[in-house]
Design goal:
7-stranded mixed beta sheet, alpha/beta, single chain, 9 helices, Rossmann fold, binds S-adenosylmethionine
Length: 217
């Protein structure tokens, strides 16, 4: 039974991830349609993304966590906020284009503001230098690898100089050309600097990484 449940959960996860052909709007729609099942599916596969993201964030802020202001991008149902909360973080906002995923997060009452918006080439309706950190736990892979450089520039704009962008994703995405190029271009331009890249084993199979960039401008 447990084995069958796990297989079904893995099937659901591949459906949610989609492939190169799945449009970004279709991906959002898939999450919306499965928002009520999402937490259970992730629990079944012992999904570590939120735990690792929050742990890494906690290591960067050793004191005064209740005043650290965080934007959780691709927040979904708020699994990352739950883990951040357990480390003492209290000031967290959520950004996700799926209103139904955010509805699930709202029930947990952990975020202050909810932005039903996608991280894309467009400007975010958020003032410069607002946050101490941005967390991104398992943003849809097919979206992450196609993010234009403007999306990362927006994150840099809304994070205070000296703040951090903590991004957890599948190890295999490290070879995605655009993602790699964007990370390097912004480093060459002196906008951010990668200070950490940690690998961790996913229970079952595969590896994930957590990448930490320090915002310089
Ligand atoms: C695998 S879930 C991760 C949710 C949560 N961070 C977690 O760790 O459980 C991926 C999320 O990415 C969101 N997403 C898809 N496209 C996005 C975009 N362009 N900007 C921000 N979030 C996006 C989806 O709506 C979905 O909630």
């Amino acid at each position: 039974m447990a084995q069958k449940e796990r297989e079904q959960a893995l099937e659901m996860i591949s459906y949610l991830i989609g492939d190169e052909e799945t449009s970004r709007d279709e991906i959002i729609d898939r999450f919306s349609q499965n928002s009520q099942r999402y937490d259970k599916v992730m629990e079944t596969v012992n999904f570590m993304g939120p735990l690792i993201t929050a742990q890494t964030t906690a290591e960067l802020f050793l004191s005064n966590r209740k005043n650290v202001y965080i934007l959780d991008v691709a927040a979904g149902t708020g699994l990352c906020a739950e883990k951040l909360y357990s480390h003492g973080f209290r000031k967290m906002d959520a950004l996700d284009p799926s209103s139904r995923m955010l509805d699930e997060a709202r029930r947990k009452g952990l975020y202050g503001r909810y932005f039903t918006e996608a991280l894309r080439e467009n400007a975010l309706n958020i003032a410069n230098d607002t946050y101490d950190a941005v967390t991104i736990s398992a943003m849809s892979s097919m979206v992450l690898i196609k993010l234009p450089i403007e999306a990362f520039e927006e994150l840099i704009r809304i994070v205070k100089p000296g703040g951090y962008i903590i991004n957890t994703f599948m190890h295999s995405l490290l070879s995605a050309v655009l993602l790699r190029e964007n990370m390097k271009t912004l480093e060459d331009q002196g906008k951010w600097k990668q200070i950490e890249l940690k690998h961790f084993q996913r229970p079952g199979n595969g590896n994930d990484v957590v990448s930490v960039h320090k915002v310089l401008t």
